[in-house]
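Its record is retained below.
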Amino acid sequence: MNSVDFLLTNKDITYEIRTEIKRLGRPIPDLIISKTDVGKSRNYSRNFNSSVYDRFKWLCGCPKRNKLFCFICLVMGGNQSAWTQEGVLGKVDIRQQLE
């Protein structure tokens, strides 16, 4: 019930269900997100690190979509943004979305 996929596909959730979802906590799965950056002398590879969940307590993940979302926004019915609809792909996207 507290999965991102459930929250994205069920928009008309009652207050009682939202309270239960909040009680269950945010989903924090290990995701397979990687990015390769090209540098002047070599390529740099970055991989998802689940410690990001510790730094951003509002962050949750969806293994089905392999993306990150704002848990509070999903539960409370947030606006139409990448954090509530599309998801973001990791640290680079997080920085861009927070600016």
User: Anything to note?
Assistant: The mean pLDDT is 82. The longest helix spans residues 15-24.
